[in-house]
Design goal:
DUF2961, DUF2961 domain-containing protein, Jelly Rolls, 5 helices, 2 domains, 458 residues
Length: 458
């Protein structure tokens, strides 16, 4: 097995390039705006080639009151929304759910179905819309301490999973939110002079969620004798991946919101492959891969530990935010190979007795064509958040001050209305510029491809 560093010692016939959100006017507004309920093409590349790295960071904020800075006057500068609300200059908050309201969609070689269709946060390991810094072989997240473990907190997102493409690669951001999203990104790639080898497999990712899982005893405590039933079918397991084709499964992340207040693990992992699926539509027992507990599948033991290693670890631990966890397992050196079909599943609690909220992103490589892609509607993707206490109602006043208060309220309403009109206009202008820059990026990528073709032939 070759080390990833071994490639650095050999010459390779390839041309490096990048598409990004850089301000093509030469200014410092290096992010794109994708308005509400719209999409943006981040990259449209001609193959053959391979995406080697994706970096992203973004913000999506809701305006709560009129700011003192006119949005149109701030149109050409870097984000000024970082100013703390306590200064009275602006009043905004991050949309706590935007990591699941925005999707990343990747399509290879003009396929009818995308190979990747996943909520933006979950693709990189931001479960429950709560970023937390972690490091692994395929993905990393880097978040400032004040942004960590907050619903909708900002973070830097990285992916190093190699993504080859034969004819074309198309990466899109799909914003299903009622708010615009501001997106910074790099997409680094290589172009090849020759077609990809015939045995090339293509990167895929899918997202799934059960909220709640269909537990038969969520009212009985985990690890009590009464939940220790015999499960010799796995038919009610939570399914991480079920796909047909030829390839190998390379891992997942799993976000769990545990409702019982005890322990959400103990469920066995079960993976059926190829001839485990019988002609009559049933599955053989036991499956080709049968594990000993959810914590064991993620390579922990005696619960989950607060660590993040190359191939397994905890992104979010229950000790960080009670009831919430995010863990990952990457089969980089031990991929699970299949020739016809694979089903990756886990019991939600031993014998599937718990009714927790489970969401997962599965990653795998397979030969084209890509399987049918779908994702739950937005309302069914939103994370479970603790309910906020209701805001107190304004207290009434009498006398002369009551008249002044009424005037001030009307002044505030009018200023807020004017502020939101200018904010909408700024979003429109930025969205139009981002669309032009997206088209320019596609043209530039085509020029790079053409020049490389000419040089390779010469």
């Amino acid at each position: 097995m070759l080390s990833p560093l071994a490639d650095l010692t050999r010459r390779k016939a390839a041309r490096s390039a990048r598409t990004s959100s850089w301000d093509q006017r030469g200014r410092n507004q290096d992010y794109w705006t994708t308005p509400a309920h719209s999409s943006r093409v981040l990259a449209d590349l001609e193959g053959p080639g391979q995406i080697t790295h994706i970096w992203m960071t973004q913000f999506c904020r809701r305006t709560l009151g009129p700011g003192l800075i006119d949005p149109l006057e701030a149109d050409t500068v870097a984000p000024v929304m970082e100013i703390h609300n306590a200064l009275g200059v602006n009043w905004e908050e991050p949309d706590p759910d935007y990591y699941r309201k925005v999707l990343i969609r990747i399509t290879w070689d003009d396929e009818d179905e995308p190979a990747v269709l996943v909520p933006l946060g979950d693709f990189f390991g931001v479960g429950h819309c709560m970023p937390n810094s972690y490091q692994s072989a395929l993905f990393t997240v880097s978040a400032k301490p004040e942004e960590s473990l907050l619903f909708g907190g900002s973070a830097a997102l990285n992916c190093w999973a190699p993504m080859p493409f034969g004819k074309r690669a198309r990466i899109e951001l799909v914003n299903e939110n009622d708010l615009p999203i501001q997106q910074y990104f790099y997409i680094d790639y290589e172009l090849f002079p020759e077609p990809l080898p015939e045995d090339t497999l293509y990167f895929h990712a899918r997202w799934n969620r059960s909220n709640p899982c269909n537990g038969w005893a969520p009212d009985i405590q985990t690890n009590s004798p009464e939940v220790n039933i015999a499960d010799v079918t796995g038919e009610d397991n939570y399914v991480i991946l079920d796909t047909e084709g030829t390839g190998h499964y390379v891992g997942c992340n799993l976000s769990v919101h545990h409702r019982q207040g005890s322990w959400w693990g103990e469920g066995n992992d079960m993976i059926w492959i190829d001839d485990d699926f019988l002609p009559d539509g049933t599955t053989s027992w036991p499956p080709s891969l049968h594990g000993t507990g959810t914590e064991d599948y993620f390579n922990h033991a005696w619960g989950m530990q607060k660590n993040a290693y190359l191939y397994h670890g905890a992104i979010l631990h229950e000790a960080d935010v009670p009831g919430y966890s995010v863990n990952y397992r990457f089969h980089v050196t031990d991929p699970v190979r299949f020739e016809e079909r694979i089903r990756v599943s886990v019991e939600h609690g031993h014998g599937n007795h718990l009714s927790d909220d489970w969401a997962s992103t599965a990653y795998w490589y397979q030969a084209l064509p890509s399987p049918r892609a779908s994702v739950l509607p937005l309302e069914q993707r939103l994370p479970v958040r603790p309910a906020d206490a209701p805001a107190p109602a304004p207290a009434s006043r009498a006398g002369a001050v009551a008249e002044e208060i009424a005037q001030m309220r009307e002044r505030y309403r009018a200023r807020f209305e004017r502020h939101m009109e200018h904010l909408a206009e700024r979003t429109r202008l930025r969205g139009e510029r981002s669309l032009r820059e997206s088209e320019a990026n596609t043209e530039q990528a085509a020029k790079v491809r053409h020049r490389y073709n000419e040089r390779s032939r010469g």
